[in-house]
Every structure is written in C-alpha cells, then in structure tokens.
Amino acid sequence: MSFENRVCVITGASSGIGRRTALDLASLGARVCAAARREDRLESLLLEIGGEEQGHSFHVTNVSSKQSVKSLADHVSTTYGRLDLLVNNAGFSDSRSLEEPGGVAALERVMATNFYGAVFCTAELLPLLVSSSPSSVVNVASVAGRLALGGDPSYCASKFALVGWSEALQSQLAGKGVHVGVVEPGLIPTEGFPQAKVRTDPLLRYLLGTEAQVSAAILDTVRRRVFERTVPRWYYLLQLPRLLAPPLYRAAERRLIAPRRVGPLDL
Ligand SMILES: NC(=O)c1ccc[n+]([C@@H]2O[C@H](COP(=O)([O-])OP(=O)(O)OC[C@H]3O[C@@H](n4cnc5c(N)ncnc54)[C@H](OP(=O)(O)O)[C@@H]3O)[C@@H](O)[C@H]2O)c1
After folding, report:
1. Which residues are annotated as catalytic?
2. Which of 1, 29, 161, 167 is 20 to 30 Å apart from 146, CA to CA?
C-alpha cells in the first residue's frame, strides 16, 4: 500500500515518536495533520515537512478534552473531507503512587490522555474513517500494555486498557473496512521518556530502540493490516513466560525484577 496523498492524523506529533512518524509519512507523500498542545512545535514541524502547499496542516489539540477533539475532527473534515489513517500516539506517564498526594488524580489524568484520548479521537473521526475506507487506526500503546514490569501502575492501567480496547475494536470495525492496529514500544529514548537510567547502564542500553523503529512499525502495521507489533520486535518473547507459566513469571517478577528496579521504568 502506498501512502501517497493519504490523509493521516497523528496525535502527539510535537515530539518523539509522533514527530518522527509525521516526518516519515510526509516523506512518503502523505498529507499530514499534526495534533498536539504545543503550537510552536507544530508550526516548526509544518515548516519542516513543506507546509500547507504540500497538503499538510496542524491543529492544536488536547486529546483528553472532548471539545478539543471535536474541533480537530471539524478541522480534518473541512480541510480534507476524508481520513485514511489515525495514529493515536499522544501519551505521558506520571508515576506517582496511590499513597502520594495527588496519586489518584494523577492516575485519572494518565487515563484521560493515554486511554480516553485515543477513544475520543477514534470516536470523533470514525465517520470520516468509515467513509474513506479502507482506512486504519493505529494505537501506540506500550509493552507496559502487555506486561506490568515497569513499576508504574497508572501508566500500565492506561496501556492495558488501550490494548484490550484495540483488540475488541478491531473485530467491530473490520466489517466497516477500518483496520485497527496496536504498536507496543519498549524502551525508546524520547523527550517525555528519556530513559536516563537505561542509557547509562553498560548492559541495559542494548535494550533501547529508536523513534525511527517505532515509526517504521506503525507504517508496517498499516501496510500489512496486522493487529500487533512490538518494538524492538523480540520484546514479544517477553510475554511468553507470563502466558505459559503465570505463577513462575510472578515469582520471578517479585524476586528478581522488582528488587532491582530503581524507580519506575520509562516504558
Ligand atoms: N518512549 C518510550 O520509551 C515509550 C515506550 C512505550 C510507549 N510509548 C508511548 O509512545 C507515545 C509517544 O511518546 P514519546 O516517547 O514519543 O514521548 P514524547 O516525546 O513525550 O511525546 C509525547 C507526545 O504526546 C503529546 N501529548 C501529551 N499529552 C497530550 C494531550 N493531552 N493532548 C495532546 N497531545 C498530548 C505531547 O505533545 P504536547 O505536549 O505538545 O501536547 C507529545 O507530542 C506515548 O503514547 C507513549 O506512552 C513510549
């Protein structure tokens, strides 16, 4: 499948994985609509990919606000009148525990962006995706959406919710010609997830992936219309012990991994 002339909305396009994906899609001839909250970042991205003359645009959007997402959908509808790909990528982590002040509110905010943000965007843009089918939605989750190893319950909850929702949604939307995929990055150094501890560890740094690998996985998910991709790919194997021998997996997590974890991991 070619991305030439396809209309693609990417949330969280102002930095990291979303920005990389916007650059890659634009270089393949897609018309990119970049969404995020930081207008200055979106403006410079637009300049970098060739501006409105090339069919690109941006819309300042807070995905956790239904009203803001509705305004994004209006923008896409009036500017393009169609939508071929929605990448729900906006996300962040706030690892405050339940015992800390504001711990519950932090969990609510994480869910509001990482999970409900994807739900709001998909719901508002669905009529355009259906009328433009075959089309795709790719949700950027995390390996933390399959494995609770990172020591950050709020983030894990948001990403498990996103993966479960995506898996159920794919069969619902398949009959309408809308493919749903999920990409699960591992440890990728970005602005929001700097991986400072892992980057300086002589062994663990080999576990790091790149923004470009995640972007390539997003595009591959769309091209091949597959459901799931982990990045790096071999991270998929990490799920096997949990699926095949849950008690052993939990014992290993408690005895080997949890004691060595110095604070939550950026997953
Ligand atoms: N890096 C990793 O190791 C890693 C691993 C697994 C999964 N992920 C996932 O990958 C996605 C991208 O993260 P990243 O690593 O590229 O981090 P990043 O550089 O911090 O990018 C996050 C993006 O999300 C946007 N965003 C955050 N809250 C938003 C909101 N309420 N409304 C709209 N946009 C919002 C940010 O833009 P504004 O601040 O301008 O709004 C930014 O563009 C996230 O969903 C993250 O959970 C990352």
Report:
1. 155
2. 1
